[in-house]
Amino acid sequence: MNIHQIPLGPLQTNCYVLSNDKGEAVIFDPGGNAEQLQNFLTEQQYTPVAILLTHAHFDHIGAVDFIREKWDIPVYLHENEKGWLSDPAQNGSMYFMGDEEIKMKEASHLVAKEEPITVGPFTFTVFFTPGHSPGSISYYFEKENIVFSGDALFSGSIGRTDLPGGNHEQLLQSIHSKLLELPEETVVASGHGPTTTIGNEMDSNPFLSGF
What we know:
Layout (H helix, E strand, L loop, with lengths): L1 E7 L4 E7 L4 E5 L5 H10 L3 E6 L11 H8 L3 E4 L9 H4 L1 H4 L12 E3 L4 E4 L2 E7 L8 E5 L4 E5 L2 E2 L2 E2 L9 H12 L7 E4 L5 E2 H7 L7
Parallel strand pairs: 3-4, 4-5, 5-6, 10-13
Antiparallel strand pairs: 1-2, 2-3, 7-8, 8-9, 9-10, 11-12, 13-14
């Protein structure tokens, strides 16, 4: 497996591309710079099979339609954020992007349960990790010992909770009950900044000192 971390969009949100030895790939949170991402996928000779969204804030979705239409692939999002992709008020672009409001087509698959999901040759366990947003989810790929946590957990920090639908106590509970239960060596692929591990965050993250 190959895992690529590509900062994209206005906030340099981490887009992740996970591919197998056949060149099949899933894309997490394509936040913008659609042509840059397309060029990367083409250069690597990858064939995307799905877009998996950890949540639908504007900085995580800016290249969704371009990529999905280029390869005719499905988009996955939690049902609690149904309608956000096409609504600049809910996805936040109305407030943070000025005249560049983001309106994407709705997701083709709404995630409703914490259960394994299979897209192409890839199978992930979905964890419901709200708090940063009401529909935040994390995708755990046990085979590669990595969790794609979106904006729930960062290296040395946690997601902001002052946006609509945010809840600080709920976020801490999500991290404690879902993410910190993973093996300590699990790599945390966060929505911003460097990757980390569950063990590192248990030992040194000041926001988690009470756990």
